[in-house]
Design brief:
Chain lengths: ~400, ~350, ~400, ~350
């Protein structure tokens, strides 16, 4: 092992393949599905599904030990194409991550194998509730075991469920729902359950109208006596009563899903930021404005400095992302590094895309170009999967060695 | 004497406009943003307040009380309600103010139109649709040809409300910016409705001018011309105040939400990370406002205000963006959805860096 | 009344007078007393004292209703000269503010009149303690009334006492010491006492070596059975037991001194910031670099933008300062606005002076020029009289209408 | 494969230097800053670690393991101890590295001097004493005159340790930067000790060169010359790593203080305003480090690294300043006094924007 920034050939070919999809199947439809909010973007979904399920399939592995790095590189590429469409990718998405992380081999086979064949399908994860916000420990959705039928009965409301509508309205899809089996146990009572498309008692009551990523369906789900088989529980049913400052293995296990998903979200952010930065640089070049990396101090233009700083910030975010991803590939705990990457990428890309709009003047603000859209899309990365502030809090706790009860 | 207290009359205006913004404008803000339409009824009601007419000469039926300071006070309060609607309400001033200040006697006859009982929208075409649009050096040109001027070029962000009949077009004549009164129906004038990221309640157009001919008398100020730099500065000061208004709207929305929203069993406003962010917003908003006031005060003294207007606009547009972005963060997930206002404030705030002369004081 | 930025003639002449002192009696000695830390700068003190006590005296009033604004304008001017020397001005300084605010007419006459005649003297205020930091309510220094002698007996240690050494080592000087008469009363027990030069039981045990403002003596004082007459207590002896969320009138009264002093500290900051910005602009002009306020967007240099932003930030800080000062002149409560001015000025000027060093390249970093010194001097304004964070906290409480127990 | 893990050998070097910085350098940092003297004994001890010699060719008695990546790992750790002392320790490389990479066979004979058992300071004169010092376009000139070069100009921030016998002077020859080996005693060479805001432990000089004559053989690389842009980039990457080191020193100091310091009855680190500030510091430090690593890695591949070195240096010098300033704030009043380290970190951090080539990797 040695410090290296040389991507594996598999990573590079995976990136190139995604770039091809981004250019041919995403960019051409970006504006259409920004305007036609929530419509299913079949022009993107169909070829994406064909690639994923076709011969050769999508390469999701860059080679030995580089799997998650490759996923991040590919994610960046797709979100360079269009972050909203990316989130409508026919795939298990975060629901898949949860099943992969916490499911038994049988559960993985049962819920994930349909994604290798047939018609396009989607997975989703439902955590947030109307009154909980960032406070995942305060989940109100309940799961009660009906001993007679050996079924879990779920009740509650979930918001901000990305791809929740797509997941539930296409056969073979599923949503991983977080619910408590024992409110008195606090975090210890929180478990995750797989609810498949077609299950009775779960329904999509609406999709949010959003600032950006409008191609993505952000669903509100209501569960009313929604019954699922016992073995749709991910992990163990046993509740560990946890005092506030330690324990919580179950909850921590569930939260650990974020350690895997945050680098991916960070990579999404980097992709959107790069889209904007690439475009700005190309446009400046077209307009005859050169970015010098060795300009005399008194002659450097404000634009040059802006672009140089944008490049540095983007690369900083990207490297933090890869580092957090690489730790997964190495089997190292990356809770701190994942939150660092997410916090940095969300903020950096918010600023980069906002600056991109400014640098292009009136053109940047116009919907004739996609730059204004990228600014709107980018902002989600500063918010979901833990806001900027939540990730700062996680980083702070780790560097200070404080528990969540000491620093909150 | 150095003082920061509006006159009693100004305070009355502030209170009136603040109420109007809260009760009439704000409730329409989201709907107008989504439907991309200006609320006719609100505009009519606002017109009855006489905010623009008061500043027009008495000879034209106005109040004769033009004051840039009063202008920024009004502009901020209106923008707290909604930026797009505020710009629509103030649009008559886009033609009327420059005519009142620089127009020939003949041109001033048109002022009554804007001071009258019916709302008459104005329009000013300054910004140009290129990445390096330079308000001091328009690329749109005006060439004298006999008893006419011939205008060529393109403009964007041109307010284009229903009922607009005349647009004041800024063009370089021998390298010096001048303004020309152009009829909406002039031959060679094309107007395409625009779609931008924000300020959606205000209809704007991208204009193309291909050999548009206007009589020599259409040049603002006639032979004397007009001090377009001063008009630009009046625009920058107005926009500075409106950026402060947008920032204030975002701040107040975020503050109220933070006090209400419970997370981990307490209002999020009790968390230092949120509370300090709100404190910074409040400080920056007040600071930006004072810069706008100072620039306005200097405008009222008739002095060159290029530097102060630039400082005020730069500062307030930065503050508006940061505050709106911060408000989105305070709202968390709700900040990203269009059921709440912060995302709209963010889209609106981002526009100021490329806005010029969308309103005047 | 109307919004106006037109200074009174009295303000302007006061400013000009201070500018003269700054140019002739401060700048020439700036580097000397930066190097000779803590030495008494007589070259500045003597002419300053002569002006203050001479015929005509120092004009400290700009005209009706503009007193505090004028003080701020003059303070800016003197700190444009040298902030370290300014803090060694032979005057009652913060101690004087406390006496003026809370003292009886007799106390004012007794403690302040010596400052109109005789040899140079100094006043000071002693609040901070080694373990208290920003927490003024946690003062450990005690004042016990000896009923037999009707004297207060003070015991404790004070740090960060600006001009404490000068105040105690020159006849007629005094230090206002904060102490508690009843620890069980919390904030309600905190009172302020005047300890005059020559009093037994108080001694200066050292002066801090500092980053900047090295001409200023920042003393550590030890009080050991320091006895002072009963009537050296400022305000009433009565202790109001205060529950935590309200009451505290005594403490609040004491804290109100800050409402008057914070605009002055803000003005000091603005003065240092202006020194740096003025110099940068002059130097750029000398080098043929012009700052354009109407440069074409693509041609604006990074330096132009830096300078324009520095100007805006400095003026923003100045206007917030004047506003807070003006409220005092109007008799309005300015707790919020004073903290806003202090927070903004401290931070803005920290950044302005740091940027000034950068803009001058190697010259900025060299001790051949004063710019590096101004950067060091400026930083104090972000720290004393309540750090940036304390002032943010105060602002936050006010805008949220939260007490110090809810938001801390 | 993309990877962020140093080799086992590098990890050993990191651990060794980290211990050395903590145990030998840090304890001397304040004293050396106040006395403006370099600690001879520490330098000698550091020399025994062979940090520079390891990177020199085996033919000269070195370890033959020049690696920019190893260089940034070492530079950061040393700078965590103290910037001035770190620069002194690495100073032999200022002459030795460029000679090893670009020197003629004759010039390389001098390398043994730097690889030997006794510490031999090096010196490189790049920055010039003017506000717009431009490392790519030095104003110091070299003119060929017969079998000699004549050097004219001025330099500053020139490391000037006791025992320095040769300084490598960067000068423009026909507009192209080249480097020349100049004896400390050369006629026409003046050296004035400098006094700057920070980095006081390192003795530096301002040089004046008035018709300084050196033999043609003194040009680095002889007829072939040297790639000074590469040397500059090596300097920028080294400085980037050292800025990360200064930032880390400030951060770690502030973090430890915040956990200890009680205010209002709890450690200040439990306050979000402080905790979030520390979190931001940690994030930015790690991000800046990775940029420095990437630039170093690219240097090791022999590619042009102008862009990456610029990005890394800009980012890390900004981070160092912000973190040091933040550390002063975390310390409050104590941050301003010289009994604690943050004020020194702040002074040192501020220098990076004008530093060039004070160390090389």
């Amino acid at each position: 092992m040695a410090i290296s920034f040389d991507a594996n050939p598999g990573t590079i070919s995976g990136r190139d393949e995604m770039h091809d999809i981004a250019v041919n199947h995403m960019r051409p439809w970006s504006r259409k599905y920004d305007v036609q909010e929530h419509d299913m973007p079949w022009e993107f979904v169909n070829p994406m599904w064909d690639r994923a399920t076709g011969k050769g399939g999508l390469k999701l592995d860059g080679g030995p030990g580089d799997g998650m790095v490759t996923v991040c590189v590919q994610t960046e590429e797709l979100c360079w194409g269009d972050a909203g469409l990316y989130l409508r990718s026919p795939s298990p998405l975060l629901g898949g991550s949860a099943v992969a992380a916490a499911g038994t081999p049988e559960q993985r086979e049962k819920f994930l194998s349909p994604f290798r064949t047939g018609k396009p399908k989607w997975g989703a994860m439902a955590i947030t509730e109307p009154q909980a916000g960032s406070d995942a420990a305060n989940i109100q959705t309940t799961a009660v075991l009906d001993d007679d039928t050996n079924e879990w009965v779920l009740n509650g409301t979930k918001i901000f469920c990305t791809a929740g509508d797509a997941a539930l309205s296409h056969d073979g899809g599923f949503v991983v729902v977080w619910a408590t089996v024992d409110k008195s146990a606090g975090r210890g009572g929180i478990k995750s359950f797989v609810v498949t498309a077609g299950t009775k008692g779960i329904k999509v009551v609406g999709c949010e109208k959003k600032l950006g990523i409008r191609a993505s369906d952000t669903a509100t789900l209501v569960l009313e006596n929604c019954r699922i088989p016992y073995n749709h529980l991910l992990g163990k049913a046993e509740v560990k009563k946890a005092d506030d400052s330690k324990g919580d293995k179950g909850f921590k296990g569930a939260m650990a899903t974020f350690d895997a998903s945050r680098p991916i979200v960070a990579a999404m952010a980097v992709g959107v930021g790069r889209a904007a930065l690439d475009f700005v640089k190309e446009e400046l070049t077209r307009q005859g404005v050169t970015i010098r990396y060795d300009s005399p101090p008194t002659q450097q233009t404000a634009i040059e400095r802006d672009v140089i700083d944008m490049e540095a910030e983007l690369q900083a975010a990207r490297l933090l992302t890869w580092r957090a991803a690489k730790m997964i590939d190495r089997g190292q705990r990356n809770n701190l590094e994942a939150s660092m990457a997410k916090a940095k990428a969300g903020l950096a890309v918010t600023k980069i895309t906002q600056k991109a709009v400014e640098l292009l003047g009136p053109l940047g603000y116009s919907q004739k170009l996609l730059v204004e859209k990228w600014m709107r899309d980018a902002k989600i990365n500063d918010i979901y999967e833990g806001t900027q502030q939540i990730n700062q809090l996680i980083v702070a706790r780790r560097i200070l060695d404080y528990s969540s009860s000491v620093l909150r | 004497m150095i003082d920061f207290q509006p006159t009693d009359e100004q305070q009355l205006v502030i209170d009136t406009v603040r109420d109007f913004a809260a009760n009439e404008i704000r409730p329409k803000a989201r709907e107008c943003d989504e439907s991309k339409q200006v609320p006719e009824k609100v505009i009519t009601l606002a017109h009855e307040l006489g905010l623009v007419a008061n500043a027009l000469p008495e000879s034209a039926g106005g109040g004769g009380e033009r004051s840039a300071v009063t202008g920024v006070l009004v502009a901020e309060e209106l923008a707290v309600g909604d930026l797009g609607i505020a710009l629509a309400i103030l649009s008559p001033g886009l033609c009327a103010y420059p005519i009142a200040e620089f127009g020939t006697e003949e041109q001033k006859k048109g002022l009554a139109h804007y001071a009258g009982p019916r709302f008459a929208p104005g329009s000013l075409a300054w910004v140009e649709p290129r990445f390096d649009s330079d308000p001091f050096r328009p690329q749109t040109t005006a060439r004298r040809d006999g008893n006419e001027y011939v205008l060529d070029g393109a403009k964007c962000f041109v307010p284009w409300l229903e009922g607009t009949d005349t647009v004041l077009v800024v063009a370089a004549q021998d390298g010096v910016p001048q303004a020309f009164l152009v009829s909406r129906t002039a031959a060679g004038l094309g107007a395409e409705p625009e779609r931008n990221m924000g300020v959606l309640a205000l209809p704007t157009a991208e204009l193309t001018l291909s050999g548009v001919r206007v009589p020599a008398s259409a040049r603002l100020g006639g032979d004397a011309g007009a001090d377009l730099r001063r008009v630009l500065n009046q625009g920058r000061v107005a926009l500075a105040a409106m950026a402060v208004g947008v920032a204030r709207a975002a701040f107040e929305t975020a503050r109220d939400y933070a006090k209400e929203r419970q997370v981990f069993g307490v209002p999020v406003a009790t968390k230092q990370a949120i509370a300090f962010k709100l404190a910074d917003m409040a400080i920056e908003i007040d600071a930006a406002r004072l810069l706008a006031w100072e620039a306005a005060w200097k405008l009222d003294r008739g002095e060159d205000t290029t530097r102060e207007a630039l400082l005020a606009k730069r500062q307030s547009q930065r503050v508006a963006l940061e505050v709106a972005d911060g408000a989105v963060q305070v709202f968390g997930g709700h900040g990203y959805i269009r059921d709440y206002l912060p995302e709209m404030h963010l889209r609106n705030a981002r526009g100021f860096t490329c806005f010029e002369a969308l309103a005047l004081v």
